[in-house]
Design a protein that fits this description.
Distance between the termini: 48 Å
Number of strands: 0
Structural class: mainly alpha
CATH superfamily of the domain at 19-221: Tetratricopeptide repeat domain
CATH topology of the domain at 19-221: Serine Threonine Protein Phosphatase 5, Tetratricopeptide repeat
CATH class of the domain at 19-221: Mainly Alpha
Radius of gyration: 41 Å
Strand content: under 5%
Helix content: over 70%
Shape: elongated
CATH architecture of the domain at 19-221: Alpha Horseshoe
Largest sheet: none
Order of helices and strands: HHHHHHHHHHHHHHHHHHHHHHH
Length: 484
């Protein structure tokens, strides 16, 4: 019973652990790590699991963080689903408020998603406007403690809503205020919204100046938007020369964007290949470590059984020590398994392939052994030799040559190589080696050479020591031949 429990504990230590044993907060952090590696689908599944666990444990902080992050992922595919999830996040936060900054961000996101949904379905923007005004009021009230970042963000969101409602004057006012107080991280976004509002309000000169002042840096998408809007402004002002210049610039920018995209694609491909090679090495190391652990656990079980047969009291001491070692290994294995969560399927496939190869290798070894035995059984001279133990026989030189050729064919020219390496060997010495290779007893060797059993044994010992240079009495001539 004790041995069975220890073996079960070893199996638990070596098998894969899924995030079911982790708490909601850990799953939320894992989801963020997956998003950094662009694993969007895996991150979405992890966030849903975090939401489920947070509800079960009443972890409201992690719950609303996971809900809001999931809403951002859903917004790329379904605005309605994003709105529903963000509503849940806001309701969760209001049950246990813990950060005014997060409250403002939740209101801003919900208002933005509601505005997108109203724009898509051509419905009223009133609800979206209400949430954004609440967010802006809270941001203004907290400007002294949290700075102007949230004020700029909520003003920019209000400008977008008013622009969608075609209230261009109010949109322009909000956009100007948002751009004026925007920090460096939000400056380009606020300028883009302001420029769009200026175009809608027919302030073309100011809009053009703002577009030309914007510095997109490495953001190729924003650079393309700037060039496109400059072209539209030129056409709107009916300035043909400027329009032609802007169009040429736009095409040049588009060509540059194309080559940048190609370079980025090549860089991404190289990075992907490096990551795949790294993953392959990790999978191999994990599989090797897992097999090692299985061997360690099996070895520990054998030691425990042997100790039980020797003494029951000693078994209790050994079992206690082994149990502590197994639990220590369990914690070590857990650390490695958490790092290999997303590589479990690849490891399983690699393990199955290796098992199939081992099975095929064992089958081939069995086939080779069967064919060797079959060849030995088919040789008339070898069958004749194996009858020496019952009666003495006469064996011709031709028959000796047939036996040696047969063994060389099976053993990859073993005796031909022995003759070449040890030219001092006589034919009788080779014949003794052949009989030893065929596992014939000393009595049969004595019958063939008409000598006693002890003389046959002495001849084998002499060949081993004087010819092959093996002084160890525990090593037999047969072992020496197998080694050669």
């Amino acid at each position: 019973m004790l041995v069975g429990m220890l073996i079960l504990q070893g199996i638990v230590a070596c098998r894969d652990h899924s995030p079911k044993n982790d708490d909601a907060s850990l799953r939320y952090r894992l989801a963020l790590a997956m998003l950094e590696k662009d694993s969007v689908k895996a991150a979405e599944d992890m966030l849903r699991a975090s939401i489920r666990l947070a509800r079960e444990t009443n972890d409201l902080h992690t719950l609303y963080l996971s809900q809001s992050r999931l809403a951002q992922l859903l917004a790329d595919g379904s605005t309605a689903a994003a709105v529903d999830m963000m509503r849940q996040a806001l309701q969760t936060y209001e049950r246990q408020p813990d950060s005014e900054r997060n409250h403002i961000i939740l209101l801003d996101y919900l208002g933005t998603y509601l505005g997108q949904l109203a724009y898509e379905e051509e419905t009223s923007f009133d609800e979206a406007l209400d949430y954004l005004q609440r967010a802006h009021a809270l941001a203004e009230a907290s400007r002294d403690t949290m700075g102007s970042e949230l004020v700029s963000q909520t003003l920019t969101s209000l400008a977008n809503i008013h622009w969608a409602m075609e209230d261009f004057d109010e949109a322009l006012r909000c956009a100007r205020e948002g751009e004026a107080c925007a920090p460096a991280s939000l400056k380009l976004g606020a300028q883009h919204v302001l420029a769009r509002c200026l175009v809608s309000a027919d302030s073309l000169v100011e809009a053009e100046a703002l577009y030309r002042a914007m510095q997109p840096g490495d953001d190729v998408k924003l650079a393309y938007i700037i060039q496109t809007n400059l072209t539209k402004l030129a056409l709107k002002r009916h300035d043909a020369a400027e329009a032609e210049e802007a169009i040429d610039s736009a095409f040049a920018q588009a060509e540059e964007l194309y080559f940048d995209a190609m370079r980025q694609k090549d860089d991404y491909y190289q990075a992907t290949m490096q990551q795949e090679r790294s993953n392959e090495r990790m999978r191999y190391a994990s599989a090797l470590y897992r097999r090692t652990m299985w061997g360690v656990v099996a070895f520990a079980a054998v030691l425990l059984i042997a100790g039980f047969l020797v003494a029951r009291d000693r078994l209790r001491v050994v079992a206690t020590r082994r149990k502590a070692e197994v639990w220590q290994r369990k914690h070590e294995v857990d650390n490695h398994i958490h790092e290999a969560i997303r590589r479990r399927q690849d490891e399983q496939m690699l393990r199955q392939n290796m098992e199939a190869q081992h099975t095929l290798l064992r089958q081939r070894e069995g086939t080779i052994s069967f064919l060797q035995d079959f060849v030995l059984q088919r040789s008339e001279a070898i069958r004749k030799l194996k009858g020496i133990a019952e009666r003495p026989i006469l064996f011709s030189s031709h028959e000796w040559q047939e036996v040696e050729r047969t063994l060389d064919a099976i053993d990859e020219d073993r005796f031909a190589r022995i003759r070449q390496r040890y030219p001092e060997l006589r034919d009788e010495d080779i014949q003794v080696c052949i009989l030893t290779r065929l596992r014939l007893p000393n009595r049969a060797i004595g019958n063939l050479f008409s000598i006693t059993v002890s003389a046959a044994q002495h001849r084998k010992l002499k060949i081993k020591k004087e010819i092959f240079g093996e002084p160890n009495p525990d090593i037999t001539l047969e072992q020496v031949l197998a080694r050669l």
